[in-house]
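Query structure, 460 tokens:
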């Protein structure tokens, strides 16, 4: 009976996640960290059981990384951060007059990679599990090393690495301020501030005459929507037949490799897999369509693997993905917590068994595929046209801003809002000016919480 209840929760929440974020993926520029993370946090705080929370998140990322290919291929604008590496090849295929082929290859590659990545990530996590205690015991130093590595591998390189120091000190100072003011430290507000940092920075820039010059446009932005073309028989094509044998093989290989690597930037892995396997194709057109499949498949496999491996094996957010969009699965006080001093966790790592991660993860991905794949293949043109004409970006921004305010008020009232605003403004400017992305900043938060006390203890 308990298993039936968990399965029903997982199925129901997977349906919600797939539908909500399948639709949100159609809206260009909807960053995963700023959208999936706050909503997942809200789901946790509402008291949804662990199986439901996990299935919701997995369906959300799988569904969004299917439909984010629609604006990327048909409109020539990235659906979200992870769609940016697909943009160049998508634009070249648009110029060749075959954007529908780019869309079909991209989302079919995503479907194949998502289904492959779940069991592979669980397998790789089980391989690491025997070393979990050793890893947890040196967690403060691992977070410090991981933060430095992720910063150096980001676009910011040395600037992002050096900017970690003032950012960590800012977090330490704000945490001390919050503790002295409210009697306890904050967690959720820091998380929300970092997640929405680019949004907060842009809002501040828009309110400044000098800032408006940086983000303003002289003319209204226009987009050309590609024609609606179908070249298959029947209602829905089979993703295994959309990809030819060679494309299927290399997409599978890229998904396998990226499912085993969980410490590198997902964007970097997407670019790397595209370059590594895309060069295997001699014909230029074949290379472009194949790279679309491989890269979009990698966006799925990296997000899944970088969530599952640290979640199952360690329970600590030791990956850019775990430190970013998936962070609520690890740390969402008071429901899920990480005790820095005791070195213990109380999150999905402790609440679900490995077989549950496998079963509910596959269930969520299959639900996302069943809902999003047919929709993207048959309704992409109509949906893209409706979104560009009817959906207000300002309304979406306002909705997420309101959600952030409500959650901050829930944690510690006005103090929490001020902390989130401060961290978001500084983090957003670091992101915009020095390419210090949110994954680096999340690792900086954990360095402030775990590594700084360990360093101070050594110095003392």
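Result returned for the query:
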């Amino acid at each position: 009976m308990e298993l039936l209840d968990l399965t029903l929760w997982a199925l129901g929440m997977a349906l919600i996640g797939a539908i909500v974020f399948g639709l949100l993926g159609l809206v260009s520029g909807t960053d995963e960290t700023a959208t999936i993370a706050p909503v997942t946090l809200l789901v946790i705080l509402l008291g949804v059981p662990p199986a439901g929370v996990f299935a919701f998140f997995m369906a959300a990322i799988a569904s969004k990384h299917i439909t984010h290919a629609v604006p990327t291929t048909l409109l020539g604008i990235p659906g979200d951060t992870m769609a940016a590496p697909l943009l160049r090849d998508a634009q070249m295929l648009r110029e060749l007059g075959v954007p529908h082929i780019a869309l079909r290859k991209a989302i079919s590659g995503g479907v194949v990679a998502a289904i492959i990545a779940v069991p592979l990530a669980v397998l790789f996590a089980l391989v690491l599990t025997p070393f979990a205690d050793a890893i947890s015991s040196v967690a403060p130093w691992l977070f410090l090393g991981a933060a430095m590595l992720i910063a150096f591998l980001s676009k910011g390189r040395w600037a992002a690495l050096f900017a970690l120091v003032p950012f960590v000190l800012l977090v330490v100072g704000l945490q001390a301020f919050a503790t002295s003011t409210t009697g306890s430290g904050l967690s959720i507000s820091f998380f929300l501030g970092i997640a929405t940092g680019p949004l907060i920075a842009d809002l501040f820039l828009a309110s400044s005459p000098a800032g408006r010059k940086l983000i303003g446009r002289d003319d209204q932005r226009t987009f050309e929507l590609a024609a609606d073309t179908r070249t298959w028989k029947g209602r829905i094509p089979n993703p295994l037949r959309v990809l030819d044998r060679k494309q299927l093989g290399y997409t599978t290989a890229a998904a396998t490799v990226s499912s085993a690597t969980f410490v590198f930037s997902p964007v970097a892995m997407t670019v790397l897999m595209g370059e590594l396997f895309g060069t295997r194709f001699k014909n230029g057109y074949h290379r472009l369509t194949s790279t679309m499949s491989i890269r979009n498949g990698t966006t799925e496999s990296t997000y899944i693997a970088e969530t599952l491996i640290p979640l199952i094996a360690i329970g600590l957010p030791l990956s850019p993905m775990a430190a970013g969009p998936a962070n609520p699965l690890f740390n969402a006080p008071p429901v899920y917590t990480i005790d820095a001093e005791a070195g213990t966790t109380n999150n999905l790592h402790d609440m679900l068994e490995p077989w549950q991660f496998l079963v509910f993860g596959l269930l969520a991905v299959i639900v996302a595929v069943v809902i999003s794949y047919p929709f993207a293949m048959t309704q992409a043109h109509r949906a893209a046209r409706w979104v560009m004409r009817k959906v207000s970006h300002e309304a979406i921004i306002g909705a997420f801003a309101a959600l952030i305010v409500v959650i901050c008020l829930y944690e510690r009232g006005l103090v929490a809002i001020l902390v989130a605003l401060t961290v978001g403004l500084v983090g957003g400017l670091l992101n915009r000016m020095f390419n210090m992305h949110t994954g680096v900043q999340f690792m900086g938060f954990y360095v402030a919480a775990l590594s700084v006390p360990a360093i101070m203890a050594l110095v003392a």
